[in-house]
């Protein structure tokens, strides 16, 4: 049985706890949160020991792996601490606010010889998996142009002050829009070489962005665009279109995946799940279990997580200079 510790026992930590409970071979041993009352409520519901200091689960001999679901600016310190303590790591997205911080995490993980998976949930969501499977069959040809968006309520009940500030890794793009970017990059299956972007706080009085529009150039000639919008009032949209050489794919997280050919759309069978997010978390933790127990590669590693952050850093730079920016280290 693999013992799990949750560092960041908040709303999404609870979503992870519910998923962990359904994965055979995993057991929630401990959780950590600074607020004593909230921590007590969390452990009462999900079990395990409670700690208010994030270092304590790293000292717990029954904890084999940790989930880090803390504020973004704390990810690097906590992940490096976990690696140094010999704990395997599930690290919530964004991996860290900067590529340099991602590099430090990856170096610590490599030195410690532990497993690190960055929790990019789209890789385990059934509509996205169905699209990836279709692309890998080769009948659609090469992806040429992709448009991916997440448009949602920004000031949700779990929004915190750190979400609104740049120094703490806040903003809609790093918090939620990153899902739309990740989904596009994963399904295009190519390196992004440059980014042009516009970001601002359009609907809220805050320092960090609530709106971002990104244009991407891929190494193989493909083009992409990403919309990251946190509205004040509206209705949510989690979707993507991918134009390939021989067909078009449309992913709608609330409906499933559709194939467009000869001017008609058809649903891909088995591509819709009513509770897709919970199912994706269960798949994510199943993959983490297999990586630890059977020494399998993690599906989303630190190099990939770092690449997504490098793209976002280039987007921030592009917004400042009003110029297209190349990705550092891109081909």
TrEMBL record:
Protein name: 1-carboxy-3-chloro-3,4-dihydroxycyclo hexa-1,5-diene dehydrogenase
Domain Gfo/Idh/MocA-like oxidoreductase N-terminal residue range list: 3-120
Keyword presence, Lipid metabolism: no
Taxonomy, superkingdom: Bacteria
PANTHER family reported for this sequence: BCDNA.GH03377
Gene3D superfamilies: Dihydrodipicolinate Reductase, domain 2 (3.30.360.10), NAD(P)-binding Rossmann-like Domain (3.40.50.720)
One term of GO molecular function: oxidoreductase activity
Keywords: Oxidoreductase
Domain GFO/IDH/MocA-like oxidoreductase: 130-249
């Amino acid at each position: 049985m693999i013992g799990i510790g949750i560092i960041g026992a908040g709303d999404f930590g609870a979503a992870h706890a519910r998923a962990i409970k359904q994965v055979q071979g995993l057991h929630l041993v401990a959780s950590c949160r600074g607020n004593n009352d909230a921590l007590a409520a969390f452990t009462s519901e999900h079990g395990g020991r409670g700690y208010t200091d994030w270092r304590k689960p790293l000292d717990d001999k029954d904890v084999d792996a940790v989930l880090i679901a803390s504020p973004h600016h704390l990810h690097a310190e906590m992940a490096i601490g976990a690696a140094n303590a010999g704990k395997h790591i599930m690290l919530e997205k964004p991996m860290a606010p900067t590529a340099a911080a991602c590099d430090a995490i990856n170096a610590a993980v490599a030195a410690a010889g532990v497993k690190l998976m960055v929790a990019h949930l789209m890789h385990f969501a059934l509509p996205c998996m169905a699209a990836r499977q279709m692309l890998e069959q080769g009948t659609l040809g090469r992806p040429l142009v992709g448009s991916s968006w997440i448009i949602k309520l920004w000031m949700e009940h779990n929004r915190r002050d750190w979400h609104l500030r740049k120094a703490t890794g806040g903003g809609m793009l790093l918090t939620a829009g990153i899902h739309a970017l990740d989904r596009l990059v994963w399904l295009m299956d190519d390196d992004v070489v440059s980014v042009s972007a516009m970001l601002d706080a359009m609907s809220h009085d805050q320092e960090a962005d609530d709106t971002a529009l990104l244009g991407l150039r891929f190494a193989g000639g493909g083009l992409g665009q990403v919309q990251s919008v946190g509205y004040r009032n509206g209705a949510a949209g989690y979707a993507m279109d991918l134009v390939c050489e021989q067909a078009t794919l449309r992913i709608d997280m609330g409906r499933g995946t559709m194939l467009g050919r000869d001017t008609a759309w058809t649903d891909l069978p088995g591509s819709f799940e009513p509770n897709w997010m919970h199912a994706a978390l269960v798949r994510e933790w199943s993959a983490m279990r297999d990586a630890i127990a059977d020494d399998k590669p993690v599906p989303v590693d630190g190099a990939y997580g770092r690449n997504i952050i490098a793209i976002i850093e280039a987007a921030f730079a592009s917004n400042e200079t009003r110029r297209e920016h190349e990705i550092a280290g891109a081909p």
